[in-house]
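Can't paste images in this forum, so I'm doing it all in text. The chain is below; anyone willing to post the predicted structure tokens underneath?
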Amino acid sequence: MGGVRELAGSFVVPGPCGVAVRDRLKHLTPRDEEVLRAVGEHQGRLASRDLKARCADGVEHGADSWALRKRDLTPLSSSRIAGAITKATHDQWALARRCQAAHIQTLEAGIRTLRHRLSLRIGEPGTKRAAGGYRSRGEWFRKSRRLAALEARHAAVVADRQAGRVRVVRGGRRLLNTRNHLAEARLTEGQWRQRWEAERWFIVADGESGKRFGNETIRVTPDGEVSIKLPVPLAHLANAGHGRYILTTRIGFEHRGHEWADRITANRAVAYRIHLNVDRGRWYLTASWQRPAVKTIPLEAARARGMIGVDTNADHFAAYRLDRHGNPVGGPRRFFYDLSGTAGHRDAQIRHALTRLINWARQVGVAAIGIEDLDFTTEKTREKHGRRKRFRQLISGIPTGRLKARLVSMAAEQGLAITAVDPAYTSQWGAQHWQKPLTTSHRKMSRHDAAGIAIGRRALGHPVRRRTAPPPHDRSDRAGHRTAQAGPGTRGREGTRPPTTDRPPGGPSPNGTRTREPSASNTVRDAPSTQQWVQDSLMRTG
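Text version of the structure:
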């Protein structure tokens, strides 16, 4: 199979290792909101100061400098708050380093593409694997200038990485840039300032097993009472003993409330975060905790009851159910969603589509869902697709990472496994082998539906094509049977066809008419045999 790259093996995606639930802090008094704002502003300033110190250390940072930073923050807050701030700072710096490495890879991919196309003659046609030369001398000149710009940008980013420098904005770079485009964002300067300050607040407390209700800094009792351990400079705002402030509200988590209650009753660690939604003017409390790593089911167990193959597209999931032998069952199913609008709207659309997909999987009784292991990181580069701006916008709009994480977590709650497969050639081979044979006057098959079948068959361990070539010899015992068919021991295989009635050959039929006896064989091949040759029919043909 020249020109076809080697396909990666299918695997069962590990389940989620953490849980987060959120509930609203209702009926807060003005005093409560004043205290929360004061705590958020004070600890936010400490977090900004600590992030600056961490970025200054660069790659020279170690355990001693971490302990020194925590020691400096403890008198201004508390030991536990200082630990939460330094840990959040370390995670933020590490995330910036990973993003920096991904940015370098993107620049290198663009530079390679530009160098290749600039080395070709003007107007030279390309291939399916690589783009050709540029169309005109003017375009060649502009791309040569872009190559120089990318090389300079790449050199600067590499120098920053070697020196340990990162670019981090507390509150988000996107919100910072919005400050220069208030009219386009339909915000006033005061509204933007409220969002900016709220995003830079820090009211977070890590849990600790063995402590009362799993957290000493932000404590939530089983009856819903929320109290906060105030920093030392704000201890005068306390309304309870030991420098604590008790909110007037009561909270109760509707989702996973029993699991959360079991943890705090057993004094197991639970982390909390309090934040303000400026648009709605509401305060929220988020509780999170870790789950023990659960071993995923074996791949053969996931394939035992069939599979649902799902093709991910820009506006819908194309799903098809297959039995364990790889045969399509029923018709195609499509679950639509709309990825336009705000981030909250897009997230709700994805969750709604995934909920319908998972509910259908439970109804039909499969144990796993097969998806493509998509990653459009290298596909989004402007240099690879050139003028195909709509295609670049299309693949950039598909939230592959968030979609995969949400599908895995939602499926795990329903006892379903997620099997990831190599996405290579699924659309091409699915349309080639399955779209036309399954299209009827009552069933319309699209290319995406056929890709869902290809994904499901690959997840089940079968080849995408329906059947392989027949044996080259006249007898199957020389070359063996077709490779894409079930084994002889599979239950439900087709045997000899039973007679419709028990009448003797040539005797009258039930309606009184006589039938003609079968004629004698003229060839040896047509002669009846005492040996019953069995052909398995589980692999359907078109």
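Residues 79-119 form the longest helix (41 residues). The chain is about 40% helix and 15% strand.
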